[in-house]
Write a structure and sequence with these properties.
With 188 residues, the chain is α/β, with parallel strands linked by helices. The protein has six helices and eleven strands. A seven-stranded mixed beta sheet has the order 5-2-1-6-7-11-10, sandwiched between helices. Belongs to the peptidase C56 family.
Length: 188
C-alpha cells in the first residue's frame, strides 16, 4: 500500500496550488487525499496579476471533490501534509478540527509543504515560531508576528517544513518537498 499524503483546503483555494501537488505527488507514487470542512465539491479560484492592479485578481477556477471532512481525518494514517494557499486559509484557520490535524503533523515532525497564504494555518497553531519560512510576500509581517524569520525566496526548507511564495514557485517547492519526503517518508 502506498504512503498517504493529506492536502487540507477549502473553497477559494488557489486552483494550481491544490491540483499541482495533488497530481505531482500521485505521479511520484503517493496516495493523496483532499480534506475540507465537509465532503463536497470545492470551488477553487485562479489568482493572477493584471496591469494597473496593486494586488492579484481572483477569478473562478476548477471544482474538485473533497475526499473527506476534517472531522474524518486520522493524521496517523498520513506521512505528510500539503497546505495550499488562496483565500481558503483565511477562514480555515478558525476550524478546530483542522487545527488538531495540523498540530498532529507538527508534533510528529512529519513533512509539511505550505505555499502562498497556507502559512496562515501553521501560524494559527504556533507552528512557525523559531522557523524560517517564505509565503506570499504580503504576509511578511504575519510571518514575523507568528515568530518566523521570513525570506522572500522561491522556496525555504526548515527541517521538514518546506514553504514557497506562490504558484510560480511550484517546481522548486515540489522538488525540495520530494527531497524531504524521500528521506522521511519514501513511497513503499
Amino acid at each position: 500500500m502506498a504512503a498517504k499524503i493529506l492536502i487540507v483546503t477549502g473553497d477559494a483555494a488557489e486552483s494550481l496550488e491544490v491540483l499541482y501537488p495533488f497530481q505531482r505527488l500521485r505521479e511520484e507514487g503517493y496516495d493523496v487525499h483532499i480534506a475540507a470542512p465537509a465532503r463536497k465539491k470545492l470551488q477553487f479560484v485562479v489568482h493572477d496579476f493584471e496591469p494597473g492592479f496593486d494586488t492579484y485578481t481572483e477569478k473562478p477556477g476548477y471544482t474538485w471533490p473533497a475526499d473527506l471532512a476534517f472531522s474524518e481525518v486520522d493524521p496517523g494514517q498520513y506521512v505528510a501534509l500539503v497546505i495550499p494557499g488562496g483565500r481558503a486559509p483565511e477562514y480555515l484557520r478558525n476550524d478546530p478540527e483542522l487545527r488538531k490535524i495540523l498540530k498532529s503533523f507538527f508534533d510528529s515532525d512529519k513533512p509539511v509543504a505550505q505555499i502562498c497564504h497556507g502559512p496562515l494555518l501553521t501560524a494559527a497553531i504556533g507552528g512557525l515560531s523559531g522557523r524560517r519560512v517564505t509565503a506570499y510576500p504580503a504576509l511578511e509581517l504575519d510571518m514575523q508576528t507568528a515568530g518566523a524569520t521570513f525570506k522572500d525566496a522561491e522556496v525555504v526548507v526548515d527541517g521538514t517544513l518546506v514553504s514557497a511564495r506562490a504558484w510560480p514557485d511550484h517546481s522548486g517547492w515540489m522538488r525540495e518537498f520530494l527531497t524531504v519526503l524521500r528521506a522521511k517518508a519514501p513511497v513503499t
